[in-house]
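Wait, can you check?
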Amino acid sequence: MTFLVILLLLSLGANGYFILTFSKKSDTLKKQSILLSRQNDTLRSKLIELYPKKPSSISYNIPKYKWGIIQKNSTLFISPLENSIELMSFKENTKVYILDNAKVDLKNWFYICFDSPDNITIKGWVKEESISLINEIL
C-alpha cells in the first residue's frame, strides 16, 4: 500500500514537472511570436517607405536600335524602376548592345549589355535619357 502511495506521489511530481516545463516553453514561444510579429510589422512599414508605389504599367517592346552609347555618370539599374538597386555608375561614355526596351509608367528604359575591361559581361537597365542611340536600325 505504501508502495502505491509513493508511486502515486512520484507520478504526480513528474506530471507537475512536465506541466511546468511545457508551460514555460509555451510562454517563451508566445513571447517570441509577439516579438516577431512586431518586428515583421516594423519591417513592412520600412518597406512601404522605401518602395511606396508600384509601377502602374510595364510594357516591353522590341528595340528599334541595336547599339547605343551610355553617357558618362549614368547609372545602371537591376530593374527598370526608379527605386531599384543601382549596379554601377559609368565613368566614361560606353558603347553598349541593346537587348530590350520597356516602358514603365510612361518612361522608356533600355536593357543593355556590355563587356567590362575584365572581360565580364554586364547586363542591366538604363533610363532613356542616359543613352544616345546609334542609328543602326534592326
User: Anything to note?
Assistant: The longest helix spans residues 2-50. The longest strand covers residues 94-104. The chain has a mean pLDDT of 88. DSSP finds one helix and eight strands in the chain.
